[in-house]
Amino acid sequence: MAARPRGARRPTAGERAKAASDARRTVARNRRAAHDYFIEDRYEAGLSLTGTEVKALRMGRASLTEAWIEIDRRGEAWLQGAHIPEYLQGTWNNHAPRRKRKLLLHRAELERLAAKVQAKGYTIVPLELYFVGGRAKLEIALARGKQDWDKRQALREAQDRREAARAVAAANRRRN
User: Do the bridges between strand 77-80 and strand 101-104 make them parallel or antiparallel, or are there none, so unpaired?
Assistant: First the structure.
């Protein structure tokens, strides 16, 4: 156990609980995005959700695999195709699982994203849905689509890195 510095106090139970609630807790991750796209810029966006959606997310239930982000004519960003299943204890006012959800971004970020998406080959993809400090956040990325040969090249490079790591580990085992 590490010694505390002189004069430092131990955190109270409330301070520990606050630190735990402020920690980033991932609900869903879109692992396919890194395979299908070159990720250029990342942004953190808030989500406008209903109560039953928040409760379903707190249970750790969501999917971003078929989700995409669209910017409408009014300059608002919307999360489309994300699946947040109905809350099991919800009543007649439960949410629709695949409804579109508004993203909360600064105006300058929205304008920058809209300008880039107008350029050929760029799109906005969701990467990760998580809670920070009790609020649901979505990490989104400005991305460029990969061609099939790009994907094969990335897989080949990953396989080469794994083989090199195995060779180094085997050499270290033989040396010891």
Answer: antiparallel
